[in-house]
Amino acid sequence: MDTDFEGVLAFFKELGPLSLSKTKLAFEGDLGLGKTFLIKALLELMDPHLPSQAASPSFALCLSYQSGPYQIDHFDLYRLENQDQLDEIGLWESLEDPDRASWIEWAGKYNLVLRACDLVVTLTESQGQRAYQITRNPR
What we know:
By secondary structure, the chain is an alpha/beta fold.
């Protein structure tokens, strides 16, 4: 599905918080295109209080958010140097837990991670316009 920012939010709003809270999402796109901004907006769909807590996990590598029964793990793989570090940051544990959301920026750096995600959200920019593509992972 190709869409704009509002279309992405509408798509995930239709999924609802329960589905979104268990979804494994990959976020792809160049630096500065708004992956973390989009994740903050999705967190707001889950719970209006979460975006104020949200930050880019570029240096922490993983930030976790709790909203009632929902746990959302937000990973940023940009700074990882090798696949061994995926275990160290708890990525596989999060992906294997059916009751957790795993939202992963730069998942495409590691093909195994990308294949473990349910949906891939790709952000692009052309002539100053951002575009978003949501694809189901064929696995």
